[in-house]
Write a structure and sequence with these properties.
Blueprint: H1 2-57, E1 69-72, E2 78-82, E3 87-88, H2 98-108, H3 120-133, H4 143-152, H5 159-175, H6 178-188, E4 195-196, H7 198-206, H8 215-223, H9 237-253, H10 259-267, H11 285-298, H12 303-308, E5 312-315, H13 319-332, E6 340-346, E7 353-357, H14 382-392, E8 401-402, E9 408-410, E10 415-417, E11 430-431, H15 433-439, H16 442-452, H17 454-463, H18 485-496, E12 500-502, E13 507-511, E14 517-520, E15 525-527, H19 531-542, E16 563-568, E17 572-578, E18 583-589, H20 598-601, H21 604-615, E19 630-635, E20 642-643, E21 651-656, E22 666-667, H22 683-704
Parallel strand pairs: 1-5, 3-4, 20-22
Antiparallel strand pairs: 1-2, 5-13, 6-7, 6-18, 8-11, 9-10, 12-15, 13-14, 16-17, 17-18, 19-21
Helix pairs in contact: 2-8, 2-9, 4-5, 4-6, 8-9, 8-10, 9-10, 13-21, 14-16, 14-17, 14-19
Length: 705
């Protein structure tokens, strides 16, 4: 019995030791497991910290987001946009309607401001819905994930792309604030019809800025990115309105708006912009091409920056004047004619190109004839010749030459030149410079160049900014060497601007998308002739639009002081003229040097007259200011002598001081000027009154017509 008791005791003791050993082993195992778990947690934390440090230190890939560049006219109106397949404008978050932000978050990412780039609750909910429906109809991508995908990745469905998306999403959240991410998303997302970003979409669909969108407009636009083709109101209005309702309901559930506001927004009748074709030529296509060329070739602006950089190009174009130019050419050229036309209008006071038409149809032919250097200016060149004559002091407005068929010899008598007047019409008497300009007498012009020298004329032309190639021959007087309409308008503007030449300018400044100035035009001007010389030439060219002048037939259509010169060759017809505010060159002709009929040659002047009046309709008429160094006296036209009151025939004439007729040669018995005092007496006072009456007549004609 004792032996049995001892055995049972040993057995219990053995079992107790075994139990203790098992408990100790379990504790050791638990402690080991906890130790391992701790090590794993620390390792994971270190790994996460290392990954965070690595991702935060790495740069995100370069995002290729193009932004639409704009071209604006002188008054800030957009006349063109540039984009490489993507119409995009970037704006800051405070320049976007709050309704857009609320609608976008309500439908795309309700917990955007609460998650770290990944919506775990949304992912779990989407997983459950998809498992129950055995489909993938519900996604859980956050705005940050969508932005990462759109900025840096393709839309292929691979594990590699998903991993990259997660990495880029984390990096975006690390590097940018929530507001910055939201702004990038709203500026990047596609809204259909080539519009990328909310600003471009607002302009395309509603013709307004993103900051001005209403609740109804915002809710409709917020629904388009899910399916730009399906939810476009231009393609499927019912689908667009259904999605608008869904978004409004989501905004109500989020507490962003009330049910009443949602109902009112849904029932609001929206005013959509007409869907515009990207092929529309728009306004001033020739000018826009020129601006783009100048920006790239002369200013060194990168072409990719123009297409994708979101820059703004501010130009000198006056859209009202441009519309007048396009309409006038369209109305004056017969629809069944192949005749071409070019018009360039420049403000002589600053060189701003206000209007430019390079041909009758940009859609048919993009060649800009404003810059054509193959067209002879004909008699429109003569003012440069007569300016040279006045500057020489050898000649004045009363210098006389015989208007008759004449053979001129030059090159020391070895060569001959026999010019002819238009239509072989000659006065067959002596005429002065004013008569020669008004009637465009070629014989007088060649006599003038033979007197002053062709070399001197070329020197003058160069000072006026004309660079076209020329040779010092007698035919130069008749405009036989080509000059572009741009150069002609710019040179005539010098006469309008008291002798100052402003280099023609089309671009005022260029700004990048942040408003930083990339280029700003600096005025480039120079006084190349004296104000007195400019005024005397202006006075002479006013005769072109007076009775007997080649432009008289359109004078009634121009109800303001105007000066200019017509020019006609076998293949080209011109009128280059100006007011104090605008210098304009008009050319008509054919591209293949086809000869002009009389009717075709007469189309330049009506285009000039109608355009000038329409372009300056809102500008009161102004006279050309009379500068110092100008003398106005009565002369006897036939002889050029000073005319006293008793002279039977007299005309008011303007001279450079010192070139007026001598007091020793007077028509009439009484003296017109008190030589001792130099004050106005007698006929000179009458001349001043007559001059004033002539301006009053111009103003009266403008008012009554």
């Amino acid at each position: 019995m004792l032996k049995s008791f001892i055995q049972r005791g040993k057995s219990k003791l053995r079992n107790w030791f075994l139990l203790r050993k098992e408990k100790l082993s379990f504790a050791i195992r638990v402690r080991s497991l906890l130790k391992l778990m701790g090590i794993a947690a620390i390792t994971a934390a270190i790994a996460i910290a290392a990954l965070y440090y690595y991702l935060s230190s790495q740069s995100l890939p370069a995002a290729s987001i193009s932004q639409t560049s704009r071209m604006l006219d002188l008054h800030g109106n957009v006349i063109d946009t540039f984009h490489a397949g993507e119409n995009r404008y970037s704006v800051s978050l405070n320049q976007i309607s709050p309704y857009v932000i609320q609608a976008t978050l309500a439908i795309e990412d309700r917990r955007f401001y609460d998650h770290i780039g990944f919506d775990i609750k949304g992912m779990a909910r989407a997983l459950m819905v998809n498992v129950q429906s055995m489909s993938t109809k519900q996604g859980a991508s956050t705005l940050t994930q969508q932005l990462a995908r759109n900025l840096y990745l393709t839309h292929e469905r691979t594990w590699q792309r998903k991993i990259k998306e997660a990495v880029y999403t984390a990096q975006l959240e690390m590097k940018y604030s929530k507001d910055e991410i939201l702004a990038m998303y709203l500026n990047q997302i596609y809204y259909g019809h080539g519009s990328y970003g909310i600003e471009a979409a607002a302009k395309h669909y509603f013709g307004k800025r993103a900051q001005d969108l209403s609740l109804a407009e915002s809710a409709l636009l917020a629904g388009i990115p899910k399916g730009p083709k399906y939810y476009s109101p231009y393609h499927n209005m019912k689908a667009a309105k259904d999605r608008q309702q869904l978004i409004l309901d989501a905004m109500v559930s989020e507490g962003a708006i009330t049910k009443q506001e949602a109902d009112e927004a849904y029932n609001e009748v929206l005013a959509f912009e007409p869907s515009r074709s990207s092929q529309d030529n728009g306004i001033a296509p020739y000018f826009r091409d020129y601006v783009r060329q100048v920006a790239i070739d002369e200013l060194g602006i990168d072409e990719q920056l123009i297409n994708e950089g979101g820059i703004s190009i501010y130009t000198t174009l006056d859209s009202t004047m441009q519309a007048a130019a396009e309409q006038t050419i369209h109305s004056k050229l017969p629809a069944n004619s192949e005749q071409q036309a070019a018009l360039i209008a420049i403000d002589p006071r600053n060189g701003y190109i206000k209007a430019m038409v390079g041909g009758r149809s940009y859609a048919d032919n993009q060649y800009n004839r404003v810059f054509a250097s193959t067209r002879q200016p004909g008699s429109t060149f003569k003012p440069f010749l007569y300016l040279t004559a006045l500057q020489s002091r050898f000649m004045s407005p009363t210098t006389h030459f015989m208007s008759e068929p004449t053979i001129f010899t030059y090159d020391e008598g070895r060569k001959k030149y026999e010019p002819r007047n238009y239509g072989d019409k000659y006065v067959l008497d002596y005429i002065d410079m004013r008569k020669a300009i008004a009637s465009s007498d070629n014989i007088y012009a060649v006599n003038t160049i033979m007197t002053v020298g062709a070399d001197k004329v070329i020197e003058t032309v160069r000072k006026l900014g004309i660079t076209s190639s020329m040779s010092p021959l007698p035919s130069l007087a008749l405009g036989t060497y080509p000059i572009s309409p741009l150069e002609m308008a710019s040179a005539f503007g010098i006469f309008a601007n008291e002798g100052f030449h402003h280099k023609p300018v089309a671009i005022l400044r260029i700004e990048d998308r942040k408003g930083n100035i990339l280029y700003e035009a600096e005025p480039q001007f120079e006084q190349v002739i004296t104000p007195a010389e400019a005024y005397v030439m202006t006075s002479l060219m006013e005769s072109v639009f007076q009775e007997g002048g080649t432009g008289y037939r359109v004078a009634a259509a121009i109800k303001r002081p105007v000066a200019g010169k017509t020019g006609t060759t076998a293949t080209d017809a011109w009128l280059v003229g100006y007011t104090p505010e605008l210098a304009t060159a008009v050319w008509v002709g054919y591209d293949k040097d086809r000869k002009l009929t009389v009717a075709e040659a007469q189309r330049a002047a009506p285009i000039f007259a109608e355009f000038t009046e329409q372009a300056l309709a809102a500008v009161p008429p102004k006279i050309f200011p009379v500068p110092e160094g100008v003398v106005t006296v009565y002369i006897e036209p036939k002889t050029g002598r000073l005319a006293a009151a008793s002279c039977p025939e007299k005309r008011l004439e303007t001279f450079l001081r010192g070139t007026e007729p001598s007091l020793s040669n007077i028509c009439g018995s009484d003296s017109p000027v008190d030589e001792a005092s130099g004050s106005k007496t007698g006929d000179q006072e009458q001349a001043t009154k007559e001059k004033r009456r002539s301006w009053w007549g111009d103003l009266k004609r403008w008012w009554t017509n």
